[in-house]
Design goal:
By secondary structure, the chain is α/β, with parallel strands linked by helices. It contains 7 helices and 6 strands.
Length: 171
């Protein structure tokens, strides 16, 4: 939320990547820019006019991301892929942490990578949900650039070591 983001940006030295899982995200673009977001990701399913939303995000000086729910085809992004800095493929259903990874995600990554390559763009592929040391390398090998491993890291006995181990695994 906004108060948390405001507190974090006062101390953060890393990229602030905000993922909005809300209807009509356009009404908050300027606010999140003012609060210090570097990347603003909106859900394809929540945007009436995705191209306009992406342009508004970029006009505020942020990179634009689009998240896709597990049932949404990556092919729907073909016409706007050149306007997207990062696509977040949800590999669990949005709503709560700790869900099981959806295996079809590998296929979606490969299909999205084909679209990115065909359009000669530098769009990153982010995977969010169910990422662990058991699937991280396979995700990267399929074409993923960014892995979100929330529960796997934060429920670990030693989160710092878990992050280091994941980095070693995929580098």
């Amino acid at each position: 939320g906004m108060p948390v983001l405001e507190a974090i940006t006062n101390h953060a030295k890393k990229t602030i990547d905000v993922h909005l899982m809300i209807v009509d995200p356009d009404r908050y673009i300027k606010t999140f820019s003012q609060l210090g977001a570097n990347i603003l990701t909106v859900h394809y399913e929540a945007c009436t006019h995705l191209h306009r939303t992406l342009q508004a995000i970029k006009a505020e000086g942020m990179k634009a991301g689009v998240a896709l729910n597990p049932h949404t085809s990556v092919g729907l992004l073909e016409d706007v892929i050149n306007d997207i800095d990062m696509v977040c493929i949800m590999s669990v259903n949005p709503g709560f942490g700790g869900q099981s990874f959806i295996e079809n995600t590998y296929y979606k990554i490969e299909k999205l990578k084909e679209i990115i390559t065909r359009n000669n763009t530098t769009t990153l592929i982010e995977i969010d949900g169910g990422v662990t040391d058991k699937n991280a390398l396979k995700l990267v090998n399929a074409g993923a650039d960014v892995l979100v491993a929330g529960n796997f890291v934060f429920k670990a006995e030693n989160p710092t070591q878990t992050i280091a181990d994941l980095k070693k695994l995929v580098s």
